[in-house]
Amino acid sequence: MTDFLLGILGSLAASAILLVLGLLRGARPVWWLVSACSRYTGTGLGRVYRHQSSAEQDLGRDLRRARWVKVLAGRGNVLTREVFSPLWSAGPPPQSVQILLPDPGPREDSWLDRRSQEVSRFDPGFTRDLLRSQVRTNIDYLARVTRTRDGIELRTFNLPNNCRVIATDRAAYLTFYSASAHGRNSPCLYARAPGILYTAALRQFDATWTHATPALPAPAPRRN
Which residues face 156 on adjacent strands? Predict the structure, then answer.
């Protein structure tokens, strides 16, 4: 009888564990637990996306209602995709959009070249010239955008290229680049304002901005 009861209890325990694991595989239960823990710790961490690309729908929603936007990117391809189109198309723009991209110019101490070498270890089609050309293309795209939109500033930097930050007055999306994967395949953290992670993201952006070089003319005064 004891063995029988133990068997039943063991089956019930196993079923309960499987049920919990099944629930945790869904995004919303995980986000709820992460958010509850972040309130207790003060980190502000609200969500964890398994891949950076999975965050774009939520990112687009935050961009549409942002008062200001700050972007620190490794190459800037996201700036030309649909998620950023609300900032470049018709409609009231944010008060300011500050963008940081790596300096694509040739130099002996280029951090962009270091990232190229890193990525080429797992992606043989990824060359130094390819990454440079992609960054230049995105800079050209932004140069065209600024002809029709006010309040956009772009600077280039030559510093460690290890993360992506997209921040608004409400939240920040942080991706830490891996040495063995493209940024799009790396996890993305969603940090609410205020919070430790949100503050750290802004500090990272502001420190890089201070040491960056203007890549476009100063933004025109906002039209009334």
Answer: 101, 213
Residue type, 6: L
The answer to whether residues 101 and 165 touch, using CB atoms and an 8 Å cutoff, is no
Q: Which two tokens stand for residue 57?
A: 């729908």
pLDDT by residue (tens digit) across 52-100?
888 999 999 999 999 999 999 999 999 999 999 989 986 788 999 999 9
DSSP single-letter state for residue 88: H
Q: What span, in angstroms and rounded, lies between the C-alpha atoms of 161 and 132?
A: 13
39, with CB counted inside 10 A (0-12, 13-18, 19+), is middle
- 128-145 and 111-120 helices cross at what angle (nearest 10)? 120
Q: How far apart are the first and last CA of the chain?
A: 83
Give the span between the Cα atoms of 166 and 152, in whole angstroms.
Answer: 15
Amino acid sitting at position 91: G
